[in-house]
Amino acid sequence: MVHVIGGGLAGSEAAWQTAELGVDVVVHEMRPVRKTAVHQTDGLAELVCSNSFRGDTLDNAVGLLKEEMRQLGSLVMRAADRARVPAGAALAVDRHAFSRLVTEEVASHRRITVAREEIQRVPGMDSGWSPVIIATGPLTSDALSADIQCIVGAEHLAFYDAISPIVLADSIDMSKVFRASRWDRNVWQAPAGTDAHPPAPGGDYLNCPFTKDEYSAFYDALVAAESATVRDFDAVTFFEGCLPIEVMAHRGRDTLRFGPMKPVGLTDPRTGRYPYAVVQLRQDTLAGDHFSLVGFQTQIKWGDQARVLRMIPGLEHAEFVRFGMVHRNTYICGPKVLAPTWQTRFRDDLFFAGQVSGVEGYVESAASGLLAGRNAAALALGHAPRALPRTTAMGALAHYVSHADPAHYQPSNITHGIMEPLPDAPRDKARRRALIAARALDDLREWMGEAALSGR
Ligand SMILES: Cc1cc2nc3c(=O)[nH]c(=O)nc-3n(C[C@H](O)[C@H](O)[C@H](O)COP(=O)(O)OP(=O)(O)OC[C@H]3O[C@@H](n4cnc5c(N)ncnc54)[C@H](O)[C@@H]3O)c2cc1C
């Protein structure tokens, strides 16, 4: 019997796949016995924020990922297709209908039992639970997080994501900012075989220069601004590498000038000198219509945040596409812990899936659950778990999670950039993407054929 801990997107999909392969499964879901700070219902596969599963055409990577999941009999995709609401080329759903469909299908499957309980420890080898899939998501309960930390190593479990604000390009006062890369180095390089634009003349960044007086006024407003409480956790430990700006500011008047606001290497062409301090803006979308404030993760309340950030020269009339925030995101360092089958490297019968495994997003979470479920079932039936080829979107995601650089690991959405490049890729983007999708679906069919032949 397979035990799936967590009945979110990944856990529900994993349980469904396991059961469909003829293996009994228990889903242990803590809601409503124990709530998270964000979920609102006791339904399985509740969407905690947006109702969008993003693009649904084969010319984008997440659309391809969805198609692969459909081919593999995904419950999440079937429910999403049935709960679909109009959203152009994207797949958006009625979140209540979606969760209800998943909950009904999981709960009524003859091989699935849903136990409403919090699991506080990773079941040990002697627990009699094997295989086990941990799919407890970004809001994994504290007790279980602590135990996961013991098992994978404290340094391999992250707790928070800190997000910088994003502003609309049109709302930046270009007469006040200047384009430059630090020391004139254009750090950004177009990846080979992509259509990414060449660096803009003058440098990759827009720089908002401060005089001493402007910095002083900005600093005073920043330290006086009201911070939001990060949902259910006040005693937040931040990684030194991504401290909120207000936390840095409280360490000293000049700390920011030696951190994200450092001006060295950024000559203002109008003065021929380095400004007193600088906020750098980095292009956030290929179209160049959004810019994010570099290193400006913050948890200042949104009203205060807009007021304080509009004191930055050039951003007086900024329109915010997204405010900065710090949110809970519990995830392991996949490259240190996982194999591309979603098994842990140190214990074959222990799997991680979903956001806690180090993927990002609803569809990616469900996709990882899909393969973890199939592989846990394989193990229960005495077969060897299998990875998908990297030419498929699902295989590429698993490869990224298990092979990315562990030193700077960040959860990722599926993108063409993490898929295996095409040999002799055509220059035409549409043609290239069509070939990538065709190759992925061919390779997936072959993989499924091999699985069927070997009885898996
Ligand atoms: C605030 C916030 C906003 C987000 N917005 C988006 C968005 O707009 N779009 C997007 O694609 N992604 C978003 N995400 C990421 C999103 O959480 C994931 O994409 C998706 O929900 C992950 O699926 P999952 O199955 O891994 O986790 P979940 O869907 O969260 O499922 C995990 C389940 O495990 C249960 N659980 C936790 N601990 C235990 C335990 N110890 N025992 C038993 N059960 C337990 C939880 O109750 C939950 O039901 C957001 C995340 C957060 C935190």
Short overview:
The protein is α/β, with parallel strands linked by helices and 456 residues long. The chain folds into two domains: 2-160 and 329-453, FAD/NAD(P)-binding domain; 165-323, Beta Barrel (Elongation Factor Tu (Ef-tu), domain 3), CATH 2.40.30.260.
Topology:
Elements: E1 2-5, H1 9-20, E2 25-29, E3 52-55, H2 61-71, H3 75-82, E4 84-85, E5 90-93, H4 95-108, E6 112-116, E7 132-134, H5 142-152, E8 157-163, E9 166-168, E10 178-180, E11 205-210, H6 212-224, H7 245-249, E12 277-283, E13 290-293, H8 302-309, E14 320-322, E15 325-332, H9 334-337, E16 350-352, H10 362-380, H11 393-403, H12 429-453
Parallel strand pairs: 1-2, 1-7, 2-6, 7-16
Antiparallel strand pairs: 3-5, 4-5, 8-15, 9-13, 9-14, 10-11, 11-12, 12-13
Helix pairs in contact: 1-10, 2-10, 2-12, 3-4
This protein binds flavin-adenine dinucleotide (FAD).
Provide an overview of this structure.
- This protein has helices at residues 9-20, 61-71, 75-82, 95-108, 142-152, 212-224, 245-249, 302-309, 334-337, 362-380, 393-403, 429-453; strands at 2-5, 25-29, 52-55, 84-85, 90-93, 112-116, 132-134, 157-163, 166-168, 178-180, 205-210, 277-283, 290-293, 320-322, 325-332, 350-352.
- The chain is globular and about 70 Å long.
- A 6-stranded antiparallel sheet has the order 10-11-12-13-9-14. Strands 6-2-1-7-16 form a 5-stranded parallel sheet, with helices on one face.
- It is of the alpha/beta class.
- The model is unreliable at 187-199 and 231-235 (pLDDT under 50).
- The two termini are 16 Å apart.
- Helix 1 (9-20) runs parallel beside helix 10, helix 2 runs parallel beside helix 12 (429-453) and helix 3 crosses helix 4.
- The chain folds into 2 domains: 2-160 and 329-453, 3-Layer(bba) Sandwich (FAD/NAD(P)-binding domain); 165-323, Elongation Factor Tu (Ef-tu), domain 3, CATH 2.40.30.
- 31% of the residues lie in helices and 16% in strands.
- It binds flavin-adenine dinucleotide.
- Residues 5-11, 28-31, 36, 38-39, 48-50, 118-119, 135-141, 144, 327-328, 354-356, 361-362, 365 line the site of flavin-adenine dinucleotide.
